[in-house]
Amino acid sequence: MIFLRFFYLKVVIVQRHWQIKNCSRYIIGIGKYISENSRTGFWGSGDINTISERLQQELPGLRGFSAGNIKRMRIFFEQWSVYIENRPLLTDEIQSVDFNYFLSVGFTHHYELLTKTNTLEERLFYIKRCATEFWSVEKLKYHLKSNLYKKQGKLPNNFQTAISDKDLQRKALLSFKDEYLLDYIKIESPDDEPDERLLESEIVNNIRKFIMSLGKEFSFVGNQYRMIVEEQEYFIDLLFFNRQLQCLVAFDLKRHDFKPEYLGNMNFYLSALDDLVRLPHENPSLGIILCKSQKQKTVEYTFRDMTKPIGVAVYKTANKLPPEYRDVLPDVERLKELL
Q: Which residue of 66, 73, 253, 303 has the fewest C-beta atoms within 10 A of its own C-beta?
């Protein structure tokens, strides 16, 4: 089978580059060859399974060439061929992303994007982040699940008036989301909401996951960070430092809907941080109020005349069941009876 021998040669090339970042370049060739022969060529419906089995016999220890993976390579080529094979005709969107970014992202990353995103713009957004921030597949899955593409830069805030530097304004806005997925916080009942201490404890116990949701530039300083003002103790729920913004970032955790008085407390914390903790070379501290929900007009009115940079985000925990399931599943008391 001459075509199979030719295919073996392609596989060997891919295997030699499997651990290299531009592996995608070679998988495109494999996918093209599979597509041309299986879609319009003379291959039968079971030939991909046969090829996978023969490859295992001819190349013992071969990885990544199961029948399912070979089909994924075909999908990879077919989804991207219109952009890759006609590069002089690339759209403005794909031209805005360095083509090397595309080649540097691993095949597994690409397949996650092809199956879980719908638009070119969204795929390119994640490809650039994967390439420039060296995301693992796990981190990409998290950001896809939390819908980073649609939520980044949507945080209700007063950065425009509270931060004078335009570049720092932009960086601050892109550093936060309007909603954070805390799906590692488990609540027994769908109707229960964690109090602030439980929420804080769960975040600290899963600090790696929380930092993953924040971004790579955040470093954890501590929880219940203690400050003394006129012999009175005050505690910040969570304190971070952002390397890109070069400032301290305080998180105030709230179990209820946003209330205007929350901004007053945060404004006080930031003033104390700037006077007592901030170093001379650092930018003014920034605050994020993380609460159950917020209403746009209430937040907008509360921000007026507020001088410290503050944002309001909401959290979503694992207990948020879709409404259609709440009437189907028995409540906690009923489950206890059944057990």
A: 66
For residue 290, which phi and psi values (nearest 5 degrees)?
-105, 110
Helix H or strand E encompassing 118: none
SS3 state of residue 252: strand
- Return d(Cα 23, Cα 98) in angstroms, integer: 16
pLDDT at 85: 59
What phi and psi, each to the nearest 5 degrees, are found at residue 234? -135, 145
User: Which two structure tokens, joined as six digits, stand for 47?
Assistant: 């030939």
Distance CA 183, CA 198 (A): 14
Within the chain, how many helices (H) and strands (E) appear?
18, 6
Task: Write the CB contacts of 129 (distance below 8 Å, at least 6 apart in sequence).
Answer: 135, 143, 148
* List of residues 6+ apart from 23 with CB closer than 8 A: 14, 17, 106, 107
Cα dihedral 271→277→279→280 (10° resolution):
40
DSSP letters along 127-163, please?
HHHHHHHT--HHHHHHHHHTTHHHHBT---B-HHHH-
Q: What is the number of other CB atoms lying within 10 angstroms of the CB of residue 323?
A: 6
Exposed, middle or buried, 239 (CB in 10 Å: 0-12/13-18/19+)? Answer: buried
pLDDT digits (tens, 9 = 90+) for 89-146: 444 555 555 677 887 888 889 889 988 998 888 998 899 889 888 888 998 998 898 8
Token readout for 93 is 């969107």
Full set of structural domains in the chain with CATH: 2-148 (no CATH), 151-323 (3.40.1350.10)
Q: What's the pTM value of the predicted model, to 2 decimals?
A: 0.69
Does the pLDDT at position 159 exceed 60?
yes
